[in-house]
Structures are given as C-alpha cells and as structure tokens.
Amino acid sequence: MLDNVRSAFNVGSMFRTAEAARVSHVHLCGITPHPPHPQLDRTALGTAFRVPWTHHRHSRDAIAALRSEGVRIHAVEITPEARSLRETPLPQPGALVFGHEVAGVDPELLELADEVIHVPMWGRKNSLNVAVVFGIVVFDTIGRWGY
Q1: Residue 37 maps to which CATH number?
Q2: 135 Rama class: left (phi>0) / alpha (psi -120 to 50) / beta
Q3: Residue 127's pLDDT band (boundaries 50, 70, 90)?
Q4: 132 to 32, 58, 60, 67: CA distances (angstroms)
Q5: By C-alpha distance, which of 94, 124, 80, 77 is closest to 25?
Q6: 95 three-state secondary structure
Q7: Per-residue CA distances from 113 to 61, 103, 116, 123, 134 (Å)
Q8: pLDDT score of 130 more than 90
Q9: Domain count, the chain
Q10: What residues pair up with 64 in beta bridges, in sequence order?
C-alpha cells in the first residue's frame, strides 16, 4: 500500500519491483499517481498493467478493506516505537504500508497498523528512498514466506 507517495517515478519503480516479486495487489492511496501516467509508465516499463492495483482516495479506507479480509497491516516507518524488520514476524496474509517521501506514513495510519517496522541502518543518513525500502522489505517478506 502506497500512502501519498508523490513521485510517479518512485511508483513506477515500485510496480517493477512488485511485478518481479509477484506481489498480489498494490493499493495506491491519496495523491499517489496511478496508471495511466507518463512518468509512472516510463519507469514501470509495462508492469503497471501486470500487477493488480486499486486507487483509494483515503488510505484509511484501504486499511479498513484489507483488515476486513483478515490482513495484518505493517507500516514501514522510522519511529521510536518501530521494530526492526529483522526482528519482526510478518505473518500471511499481510500488507505493507509505505509513505510519502518526505512526511512518511501518515500518523493516523501508524495508529491503525498492527505493527510499525523499519529497515535497520548504520550510516549517518537515516533514510533511504521509498522505492529502495519497498524492494528491501518486499523481498525480505516473500523470502520469509517461502517464495
């Protein structure tokens, strides 16, 4: 689930990663660009039409829909309460929430999540591009699920 990710290039990159990982569905929320979009299409390289997606006006509606299907919600964000990706179980079915490039995941969604997780970092810079984090977390998750 992409919560107000503003860059169409990032979204296109995430579609490519989602297709490579066989992600079952991408939920595009709020201002997140959605197909058809020229910049998104440029980086997605056709994968936006190979991965099922839905656009939701409000991210909380996507969370409510997923939760009604018994899906656990894991927000990916750097917060004092966030648990390391390496230490957090990620049971199936599960959804991962990624946020705005500057503002991150909306605090309301952090409250709605079952768990907040972060990618551990050891350098001076404490953040990564959202599309990079998407790739790390998605491939770590499917590896745990045995794909």
Answers
A1: 3.40.1280.10
A2: alpha
A3: confident
A4: 17, 24, 24, 26
A5: 94
A6: strand
A7: 13, 17, 7, 27, 17
A8: yes
A9: 1
A10: none
C-alpha span between 101 and 7 (Å, rounded): 8
In the block, residue with structure tokens 């929430």: 97
Looking at this protein, which amino acid is placed at residue 123? G
State the chain's mean pLDDT as an integer: 96
Phi-psi region of 146 (alpha: psi -120 to 50; beta: other; left: phi over 0): left
How does DSSP assign 96-127, residue by residue?
EEEEBTTTBS-HHHHHHSSEEEE----SS---
Instruction: Provide the whole-model pTM.
Output: 0.96
Give, to the nearest 10 degrees, the angle between helix 8-20 and helix 130-144.
20
With cut-offs at 50, 70 and 90, classify the pLDDT of residue 136.
very high
Per the structure, the complete domain to which residue 60 belongs is given by 2-144
